[in-house]
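Technical annex, item 7. During the second reporting period the consortium partners agreed on a shared format for inverse folding records so that results from different sites could be compared directly. Each record opens with the tokenized structure and is followed by the designed sequence. A conforming record, contributed by the partner at site C, is shown below for reference.
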């Protein structure tokens, strides 16, 4: 399944602040912590806790969120299917980056080891 231009526009306009509480709830429901979620987000984006909170407070869109991010060079190693889309087949860079984040949160919630999630080994 390929994302449509309409889907890509919707992802771009979505605010990170609206999605972040869902990420927290998802990982905590499965026994993981907010600190582990922060570690995953920091690995992908380069944002520390202070910067992340600033972006949440400013209610930035995913477009702005990923424009300001310094994407980890190993992010390209994130593969698989998330939300019905095969990540490596997504043409739109912003949508692909948002799905990278979704995939990492999903792996964290599923109990995958942190070194595997962070593509360090």
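Designed sequence (site C submission):
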């Amino acid at each position: 399944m390929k994302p449509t231009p309409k889907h890509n526009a919707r992802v771009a306009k979505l605010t990170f602040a609206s999605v972040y509480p869902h990420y927290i709830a998802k990982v905590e429901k499965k026994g993981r912590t907010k600190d582990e979620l922060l570690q995953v987000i920091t690995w992908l984006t380069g944002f520390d806790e202070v910067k992340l909170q600033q972006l949440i407070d400013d209610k930035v869109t995913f477009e702005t969120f990923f424009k300001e991010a310094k994407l980890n060079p190993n992010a390209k190693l994130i593969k698989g299917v998330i939300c019905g889309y095969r990540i490596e087949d997504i043409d739109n860079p912003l949508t692909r980056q948002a799905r990278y984040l979704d995939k990492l949160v999903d792996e964290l919630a599923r109990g995958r080891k942190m070194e595997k999630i962070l593509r360090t080994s």
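The mean pLDDT is 95. The helical segments are 5-13, 16-29, 34-45, 49-57, 62-68, 93-109, 114-117. All partners now use this format for quarterly exchanges.
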